[in-house]
Amino acid sequence: MDHYLTIHGLVVVAGLLAYVVTSHLLEQRRHPTAAIAWVLFIILMPYAALPMFLAFGSRKQARPRNAPGHHVAPQPQGGSWVLQTLHALGQPAPAQYLDLQIHADGSQALQSLWRHLDQARESIDICTFILGRGPIGQRVIDTLCAKARAGVRVRLLLDGMGSLMAGRPDLKPLRKAGVSVVLFVPPLHSPLKGRTNLRNHRKMLIVDAARESRRLWSGGRNLAAEYFEGTPGHPPWHDLSFDLAGPLVRQASALFERDWAFASTEHAPEEMPAEEEMDVGEGSARGAQLVASGPDQVDDTVYALLLSAAYQARRRMALVTPYFVPDAALLMALALAARRGVQVDLLMPARSNHRLSDIARGRALRALAQAGVRIWMAPQMLHAKMAVVDEHLALVGSANLDSRSLFLNYELMMAFHETGDVRRFADWFGRERQSARLYTLSKPGFVRDVAEGMVLWVGFQL
To answer: How many other β-carbons are positioned within 10 Å of the β-carbon of residue 151?
Structure first.
């Protein structure tokens, strides 16, 4: 018995040392709830926790700010709080864009996808989390094969874990046709490439990146049937995507090159392309900027921008997310915004496709409702991700308002500043809200309260 206790104690100590040393050497700046959860897990279940921490525990792999190649946008002159914040977070300067199309529904988004693929003449670069095995996924594969055979350079970057979630697609025809296919950190990989738990959740299609006619198709949709037109007996999910042209596309192209280089062990470009500084205040040129978030960034960029937005908002905030598991700081910021008179609206599905996430959100929703936030529950699965702040910012892309997206995943958002287009995204929010019902505040029962607490214990991984 004494021998067993000695070994058990050594395992616990080894686990805690691994946690402390790894966090210190990699400068993880781990979120407090995640740190507490890992420490308790190691103490209570060391034999399971230690291998899981070694596999999943690292969060950041970013360079220090003074490292060569870390791009810092030019200091904006008299810019808004949005520009000042994104500059401080090291994001590219605003760039012009043209012909912004906000897709009204899945059918319009799908037609835009096919049109962009068909119009490609020199290159197609796709980054997606899921490539479905159904008709849409198969048509994507067939189209990419045909384009590659016609001489177009085609590259597909597919997340290693996402490729398994909807059933692994058959990638052999793509490689046979000359398409370059890379899995982003597959489950069985060298530990030198990063932790399995850090997923690439970015979604973008870039067509003819080197031509003046370059275009970007992006947003929250994966390339599977549920994100567009649904399947027999299963209606499509509501989602938000867009496409545009212009110099802004170069920022997305540069980010794709970095992700591709990391996933394929090539040398990544040293920095994002510098864009000519723009004045994107009210009534000025149409400007937007890419906001990348994830282990490749020094800061938790989307999270920091949302926190700033909650404190800077003057009239309204409109938030859309399928999963809502915020940390204490973001939850407090949103509640304080509502209490000081900002109209805060949160739109989400009444029931999402992740039951644990629905359980975990209960305490946060009650806290916001008590603060005066209007919470809208959509009857359908709503997969869109967006934040609109006053008339100055529409943040649209792939990041959910949960700890996984904000602290673990590689995510891609676009920050739109032009007043007219911010209003267009706000109008999209208004249309989606029409079918939703207001959340009713009620006290949870004992079982529900315990379940929420248990799920929140591992909420940083949801």
So the answer is: 9
Residues 222 and 311 in one domain: no
For residue 394, what are the contacts with CB-CB under 8 A and spacing of at least 6?
Answer: 386, 387, 388, 415, 416, 421, 422, 425, 426
In the chain, the N- to C-terminal Cα span, in Å, equals 38
Domain check: are 158 and 204 in the same one?
yes
Residues contacting 55, CB < 8 A, separation 6+: 195, 196, 197
Phi–psi pair at 196, nearest 5 degrees = -60, -30
Among candidates 462, 313, 278, 284, which has minimal Cα distance to 387? 313
Alpha helices in 95-203 (DSSP H): 106-119, 135-149, 162-165, 172-177
Read off the CATH number of the domain in which 219 is found: 3.30.870.10
Same domain for 296 and 423, yes or no, is yes
- Please report which confidence band the pLDDT of residue 441 belongs to, taking 50, 70 and 90 as the band edges: confident
pLDDT tens readout for residues 73-84: 455 555 789 999
Is the same domain home to 339 and 195? no
In this structure, the answer to whether residues 195 and 238 fall within a common structural domain is yes
Residue 277 domain flag: no
Residues 42 and 147 in one domain: no
**Residue numbers of the domain that contains 154:** 95-263
**Residue range 169-191: mean pLDDT, rounded:** 86
**The model scores a pTM over 0.85:** no
CA-to-CA distance for 395 and 416, rounded, in angstroms? 6
Rounded Cα gap, residues 118 and 110, in angstroms: 12
- Quote the CA–CA distance of 128 and 320 in Å, as a whole number: 21
